[in-house]
Amino acid sequence: MDDQRFHLTLHSGTRPVMHGWWAKQATAEDMLPVWVGSWGDLPGARVTLVDEETGETLTTRPDET
C-alpha cells in the first residue's frame, strides 16, 4: 500500500501552506474536518483531498460550485 496515496493540501489564497499524506482514504477523510476546523479561518482557505494514484480530486472544502 502506498503510504502517500491520499494527499491533503491546505491553501491560503493561491499558496499551498500545508500538506499531509496518508495510505488510507478513510484516515485522510477523517483529517479533512480537523484541518478545516483548525485552519479554515485563514484568508482564502481551501482544503483539497486528492488520490495521488488516479489524480482524482476527491473533495474540496469549502465545496467548489
What does this structure look like?
Helix content is 23%, strand content 43%. It is α+β, with helices and mostly antiparallel strands. Strands 2-1-3-4 form a 4-stranded antiparallel beta sheet, covered by helices on one side. β3 (45-51) and β4 form a beta hairpin. The radius of gyration is 11 Å and the shape is globular.
Keywords:
65 residues, alpha+beta, 4-stranded antiparallel β-sheet, 1 helix, 43% strand
Give the biggest sheet. 4 strands, antiparallel
Tell me the number of strands: 4
Q: Categorize the overall geometry.
A: globular
Order of helices and strands: EEHEE
Largest sheet, order of strands side by side? Answer: 2-1-3-4
How much of the sequence is in beta strands? 35-45%
| Low-pLDDT stretches | none
Average residue pLDDT? 92
Structural class: alpha+beta
| Terminal-residue CA separation | 33 Å
Helix content: 10-25%
Total helical elements:
1
Which radius of gyration do the C-alpha atoms yield?
11 Å
Write down the oligomeric state. single chain
